[in-house]
Structures are given as C-alpha cells and as structure tokens.
Amino acid sequence: MMDTMEVEGLHRPFKVDRPLTAQEKNPRFYIKEPSGAEPLNLLGTLRMNSTYLEFRDKFLMRKGEWGMWSAIGVTLSWVMFVVGMVFFVPAIPDVLNGTEREPIAVVFGILLVTAFAIGFPWFAWRYRCGKDFFRYTHYPIRFNRRNRKVYFFRLDGTVCVVDWEKLYATLGKAKDGDVWEVRLHVLAEDGETVLETYALGYAGKATDPGVLAQWEFIRLYMEEGPEKLLPLLEDIDIHDIVDRRETFGRGFKLLEMQFGFVMAPLVFLAAITRHYAMKTCKIPRWPEEVERECAFAEGDPYEVDARRLPSEAKAALGLPVEEEVYRRV
Amino acid sequence: MLRYQALRVLAPVARRIYAPLLAVWDFACYNAALNSLDKALSHNKNGAAAEALGRIVAAVAGIVQNAFTMAQTAVREIGNLTSRYSAEKVDKVVTTLGKYATWAGRVSGVILAAVNVGKAIEKGMEGEKGLVAAYLVSAALSIAMLVAGGLVAILLFVLSVIILAVITWLEGDPFINWLQRCWFGRGPKTKYESAAEEIDAFGDAFKGVVA
Questions:
Q1: Nearest to residue A196, comparing CAs of A207, A204, A188, A206?
Q2: Residue B184 and residue B117 in one domain
Q3: d(CA B153, CA B149)
Q4: ipTM of the assembly?
Q5: Do A69 and B146 touch (CB under 8 A)?
Q6: Distances in Å between the alpha carbon of A126 and those of A122, A123, A277?
Q7: Does B102 touch chain A (CB under 8 A)?
Q8: Is residue B162 domain-shared with residue B189, that is, in the same domain?
Q9: Between chains, do A258 and B103 touch, taking CB under 8 Å as contact?
C-alpha cells in the first residue's frame, strides 16, 4: 500500500473551497494555548532568527522516492515493449495473410506493449515523479513573529500570506490510513470555508507525540521567542538548502534516517533519483516584499542557519553545547 | 447509508485478514517456485533455474511484506490494549513496519515483473504468442502496482491473480504440450530444437504428472 500521507497535498491536492469538517473543528489548536506536546524540531528548521522561523514542507523528506519507483517501472515497461515488438511484429504479415495461429494475441500484444510503454511513463510523470522533478527543491513556510504573519511558498512558486492569529491549526487524516498530521488552514472571512491548506512535516498515529511536537515548536517561537527554541536545536536539524541544492550525502542521510540500514540498497537508489530531482528543481526565492518584511538585524544573536549552526549560536550566548557537534554533510 | 454501514463493518475485517491471505498466497507461490527450481536443477536448465530463483525471491519479499503488515497490525492491537505510556514506542514500531512492508511489496513487484518478462521471452522462443501476451500482461500489472495505491492496488492484485489463472489455462496439459512439440507431434506449436531438449521436456512433463 502506498504511504498516502506523503502524497496528500502534492500528488493529490488538498480539498479546498469547502467548509471545515466536524473532525477539523475538534481538536483545534489555539495559538495562545500550549497543545501539551513537547516542542520538537524534528528536522523542520531551515533557519531561525529574532524575526522569523523558516520551516521545511512535508514533501522534502521523501523527495526522490517516487522517482526511483517510476524509473524502475519505466525501464521495465520499455523492456516489455522491446520484447513484445521482437515477438509480435514479425508475425504481422502472417496476421494479414490469415496464416497466423494466434492473431488476436499478436494484435493484443502489440497494443498492450505500445500502450503500456507510453501510458506508464505518462502516468508516472503526471501523477508521481513529475511532482518531484522540475519543480522547487522545497516549499518553505516562514513564520514572522514581528509582524505576526505566516508566508507559505505555494507549489506553483507564488506566496500565500496569512495572519498568524487567523491561521486555523488542526489535525488532518490521510485518506486511507490511520495517519495524522498538523494541517494549517487558511480560512475565508466567514471563518468556516477552507481556502488553502498546508501541512507540517511530521505524520504519525494520532497518539504519536511527534505529530504535535512541530506545531508546539512553532507556536513557542511565535508566542515566546527564539530564546526558548535555541536550546532545542541541534546542528543536524538544520537543512542546508536555503540558498543551495542539497548534497547527495545529506539526501542519502535523510532517506536512511527514515528507512533504516535494512533498506540501504534501495535508499541508495532513491538517493540518486533524489539528487537528480533536486538538480532539476529551482531553489525557492521569496519575493522582495517578503524579504523586506522579514529583515533582521545584523549580528542577531539568535540567527541560526547552515552557515551559523546552533552550536555556534549557543556558544556565543554562553548556552551549554552538546559535546558532539554534527559535521556538515 | 447501507453502503456506508457495510463498509464500516467490512473495512476493519478486510484490513486484518488481507495480509494473512496474501501471505498464504505468497507461500503457495514460494512452494511452486521451489519445485520448479528443483526440476530445473535436476535437468541442468540454468535459465529455468534463474527464473525459479527470481520467483522464490519475489515470494519471499511478498511473505516479508505481509509478515511486516501482520506484525504492524498485531503491534497496533497490542498498543491499543496497553497503557498510553507505550504509545510512542508502539507508533514508532508501527510506522517502521509499515515502511518496510511497503518497500518489500514493491521489491516483490519488480522481481515478479522481471520474471514475467523473462517467461514471456522464453515462450516467445517457443512460438507461443498467446502466452507471451499473457506474461506481458502479468508483468504490466506488477509494474503498475509500483505506483498504484489504495483500492487500485487491490484491483491490480486481483487482476494479476486472474491472469495467472489464464496463464495456467493457456499452458494446458504438460503431456499434450510435449506431444504437440515432439518430433512426431502434429500440433501447431514449434518443435523442440534438439533431441536432448525433447528428452528433458519429456522428463519435466512426466515429473509434472507424477507430482
């Protein structure tokens, strides 16, 4: 079975222009009320400073996986095409003369391998790996605590801006599976109609504390500030993808962290397709206006990104630093 | 409303029994492949042995997938019965098992597709175009399952079981098949290329009848 949560919102758009469902109304997470979960970054942060926290989208972690399955499938479908042509095409004259013993098999076989050799790559591109290639490397979300706005980088490269106070946070469930994630809805003026939906990057069972951990992490930043978050950040948490493409090593590491050593050969293949997917994708750039609104002071003590890792920021502030500092990959 | 009620009752049942059923199916495929490997090795047929080996690997991957799914269900059920304290650990195990099951299933699909394409080539060499088409359909279904999900994946699986039945029907009786292809055969099928191949095939057909 497909891990459906991974594709919700990317392969299959979220349902919008609809009223909130009963399940979405309860539970609702309010920005002023702690959810009760332990705030955790869970590989979410791209960069942080006193003005904004930039977070990754949920599609980043498994980018490239569908490329691998699609590539394997396309290769096999073309091998099928060659095999079919080798055995069926020489029989066409016999079919036309009426001397072929199995004419239906010949005609059906040619149609099958041709349709499949064209149809499978089309389907795989249109609905699966095409969502990873020639798009954006990731779709960041920026939480600005100074002007209390949230900026979502849409799949088409435009930006959705919404007031933090008006954001509707709730749990969303996968279409066919007991998998949940925190969804952030942008509502219409009526406070009931969902205009746009975005999801945080951790999915699990409803009882999994990780599901709410990222929401609590973001809420803490917006409501209490970066000083609460810095001790929670580790060097490994920071993705170095803000202004450059992810390295092969980092991509492999992220996939390996999710699938484990048991799947190492497949993870390696997926890392290759991930690497090439990243190469074909554009790095998301925020519009000038957003950058202006998110400007932060030079020498911000809470500035953390791939250039200034959390350990460095913590050391500068005299906070305790973990002994083992993670090397950049 | 009735449809909704029926789904509400049937869905949890289906979720619990599909993995054991598929595991039994994969085990049957594993046994059949093991017999084929035994036969191929006793007649020194490297191609057939490789194909049987592929089927064994695919069946094992299928069994592993279903074992993971069953373990996932079991852990979830146990987790539901135990205290909330263990919920985090249970979720972690369930998620990991789910990921392994998904990937093992897809690996099984890749191997099956490759084996079916190989079988199609073998049948093509024998001039069996109907069987070539049937094996290619089977391969196409395995490939399609790589990118399918939910109900479509189940539908594809059902279709692949049906196509397997069609293949068995098309392949027919091994003795009749041998009689049609032997030196004296009067059937429309391609003759065996050598006496050695004919004798080997006779042995295979005879073994099939005895088994």
A1: A188
A2: no
A3: 5
A4: 0.81
A5: yes
A6: 6, 5, 15
A7: yes
A8: no
A9: no
